[in-house]
Amino acid sequence: MRAKGGLAPEGYDKYAFEPFAVTVDLAVLTVRAGELEVLLVERGQEPYAGRWALPGGFVLPTESAETAARRVLAVETGIRDLSRLHLEQLRTYSEPDRDPRMRVVSVAFAALLPDPPEPHGGGDAAQARWLPYGSVGPLAFDHDRILADAHERVGAKLEYTCLATSFCQPEFTLGELQRIYETVWGAVLDRPNFRRKVLATPGFVAPVPGAARLTGGRGKPAALYRAGGATALQPPLLRPPSEGRPS
Amino acid sequence: MRAKGGLAPEGYDKYAFEPFAVTVDLAVLTVRAGELEVLLVERGQEPYAGRWALPGGFVLPTESAETAARRVLAVETGIRDLSRLHLEQLRTYSEPDRDPRMRVVSVAFAALLPDPPEPHGGGDAAQARWLPYGSVGPLAFDHDRILADAHERVGAKLEYTCLATSFCQPEFTLGELQRIYETVWGAVLDRPNFRRKVLATPGFVAPVPGAARLTGGRGKPAALYRAGGATALQPPLLRPPSEGRPS
DNA sequence: GCAAAAGTGTTGGTACTACACCCATGC
DNA sequence: GCATGGGTGTAGTACCAACACTTTTGC
Predict the structure, then answer these.
(1) Could you report the per-residue pLDDT of A131-172, keeping only the tens digit for each?
(2) CA distance B188 to chain A (A)
(3) Which residue is nearest to nucleotide D24 (CA to C1')?
(4) What range(s) does the Nudix hydrolase domain occupy (chains A, B) (predicted)?
(5) How far apart are CA A53 and CA A140, in angstroms?
């Protein structure tokens, strides 16, 4: 951020320090068929060749971390339509030994992608796949921790923001929205109360007039909603108390 | 995070890319005499020479960002006792043009320091001072934004964590604790209700038996408390609704 | 009719707001 | 006494969890 010693700006030596690589890593989550899934890539080379890892890559000289995140995701997974990708900076992981090759500082993102398209490997990734959140083995580098942090962040944001609609198709039923909460939180919610809560929050969802959809093949067709204009939930929709979470 | 192309790990060229500088910047807040203050340094050199800026500096090859943050703060402000410093990663600012000299990616921290000691300039800082939060003019680089983000983060964390005790001396009265909330939030709280709320949250504060302190020179001496073991507030202590904040 | 999913009503409890009021100290 | 700050009581309200219940569809 500031030059050392008495160097004038034009005398500033960009190469005076051991270089840092700056990368991005993405924990992309989705909900499919009531299951929480993560987008992972199989590493094609050492270290951790053959292991699953979060999609990630270098930030280029002209990019911000956010810009790099979108590009890297497109390259490594072959997913073309990222228009509905919700991207959010998580934190930066900077432990000196997190990559055995060199000093790598990684800006991690939590991301959501509804209606998950099939990915293809690309770039350095041998292959790319959606895998169930609960079943991912040890990932490369410190990606287990990044993924856990992302899950916790997303779970927390469901409480006090309208983020859940980012997991849904453009039009969705309240039952589908509830499934998002239940899947991410790993908890069961009371349907009548959930419904009231959502509808009582102005701008959370907006009804699609006259539209309805049969969800389970049986039962009453459910009314359809779109995401409303609001971003925050006031009051919040709290997770049921759990022993696992620090409270 | 991963090598490009077919380079073997040992063939990996650390210097293949335009180097990034990785820095830390700290928004250190305190409350003194009912006023919110920020720890700033005056820049000794271009760019922005003579302007106030957040303390910050390079991350060294063997440091994590957190380690660098503590070292940089000690060097630039001369503050020796950082044992009670509360440090928390805010986010990373990576816009390509945020520093005119070169590509600088900065990991920003929000920090709290109770009972603020007098700082001295040091390192690249011509001087270091505590300045009232409301009166800081335009800062160097994008530090206005970082500072605003830090303030918002701290304000939000007061709602659902025990963070407020990090602004206080080891022993404090409930009135002093309430002042912290009021100062950071810029809002007035109801004293009886605040008191009940704090005492009803298990582990937020613990009474110091028999101890009392005269606060304003007049009035009944107030009982003293220490920080309890809890870190989260359940239920939260919400800011009074305000139009300024997005809700 | 039966099962399944959507939608409505009700009730008791918790927690919060907005006060009024009492207590202990310095001047 | 009076001002100042600490501490307690209380009534009304909002919100929420936990149900029971009705409605609409497929089979």
Answers:
(1) 999 999 899 999 999 999 999 999 999 999 999 999 999 999
(2) 20
(3) A220
(4) 19-153
(5) 5
